[in-house]
Design goal:
Layout (H helix, E strand, L loop, with lengths): L6 H26 L21 H18 L1 H15 L2 H35 L1 H4 L5 H12 L3 H10 L2 H8 L6 H29 L4 H16 L4 H19 L10
Length: 257
């Protein structure tokens, strides 16, 4: 990989991303301790004053995007750095990041709509609502099993090869739309390998810093660390066994949320 153009540019680039990611964590921490925390969570949908209005959806998606910056952007910094080194253009890097985060925002919208439908189904079907206790262990089991799926490994391989990803898909030029499209494609692969873990994050709420740190660390190691491939299967086994233990109602097993 070529060296960065000069030390000042390298410090400016690193400082900007550190401020962006750090600011997202700090903001979520403050929001999680404030009266606005329920607006970042799926739980209150349908409750008084928190119905799924367009404004409510926009607030949730804004919080979800902030969470994506805090959790997902760190694991994509190798690719962003490669792109910055090749192009040397802050505007193109911004377009790349915007495309990447846009895909995660769309995922948040899809999750919000699905969750709203689930809440409505639970309210409309008493027999289904009586079995709502199966949802948390079901999510854990599904997330754990997905860690072993071919789709997971196929998408993860794309995320682990930032140099190859950019070289194969970047055709040069200075068009922000092309950089945005590259970010979208990277976001699709990132969602493809991390969606199941992020569904867990969706379930616990967008301002739960403990779960954010835990899942964010797992996804970062999977995609960035040289030994990250050894994290995927153990994490999947732990989640699946946790979900199975809850389904079997084994004593002493705490619920995830």
């Amino acid at each position: 990989m070529p060296e960065a153009r000069d030390p000042f540019e390298r410090w400016l680039y690193g400082g900007a991303f550190a401020a962006l990611i750090g600011g997202a964590w700090v903001t979520l921490g403050f929001l999680g301790a404030s009266r606005f925390a329920p607006y970042l969570s799926h739980g209150p949908v349908g409750n008084a004053g928190l119905s799924p209005t367009p404004a409510r959806v926009l607030i949730f998606v804004a919080g979800w995007t902030l969470m994506s910056i805090a959790m997902m952007l760190p694991s994509s910094l190798p690719l962003v750095t490669v792109f910055h080194t090749i192009t040397g253009s802050p505007s193109l890097v911004a377009a790349l990041v915007a495309g990447y985060l846009g895909i995660w925002a769309l995922f948040g919208v899809a999750g919000f709509v699905a969750d709203t439908g689930l809440h409505e189904a639970l309210e409309g079907l008493p027999s289904l609502k009586a079995r709502a206790d199966l949802i948390p262990p079901g999510l854990l089991l599904a997330a754990g099993l997905f860690q072993f799926s071919p789709l997971k490994y196929s998408c993860l391989q794309q995320c682990r090869s930032p140099v190859g990803f950019v070289i194969q898909r970047w055709r040069g030029g200075g068009r922000p739309l092309q950089a945005f499209a590259l970010g979208v494609r990277h976001g699709v692969f990132c969602v493809g390998c991390c969606w199941a873990l992020m569904v867990l994050m969706f379930a616990v709420g967008g301002a739960n810093l403990g779960w954010m740190l835990l899942l964010g660390t797992v996804m970062f190691l999977e995609k960035v660390a040289a030994w990250g491939r050894w994290v995927t299967a153990p994490a999947g086994a732990l989640l699946a066994l946790w979900g199975l233990a809850l389904l079997l109602k084994l004593p002493g097993i705490p619920p995830p949320f």
